[in-house]
Amino acid sequence: MKKTIVGITTLFFLILASSPALPQLKKIRFSTTSIAVTELQFRIAHLKGFYREEGLDLETLLIRGSVGMQALIGGSVDYASAAGSIIAAAVRGAPVRLVLIVNSKPQFDLIAHPEIKSVQQLKGKVIGISSRGGAVDLLTQLILTHHGVTPNKDATLIVIGTPEELATALRTGRIVACLLSPPRQLILYREGFNKLAYSGDYLASYPSGGIGATEEKIRTNPSEVLGFVRASLKGLQYYTQNRAESVDNISKYLGIKDPSLAGEVYDLHVSRLGGLSYLDEAWMRGAIDFTKKSLGVTKQVSPNQVFDFSFVEKAMARIKN
Question: What is the mean pLDDT of the chain?
Answer without folding.
Answer: 89
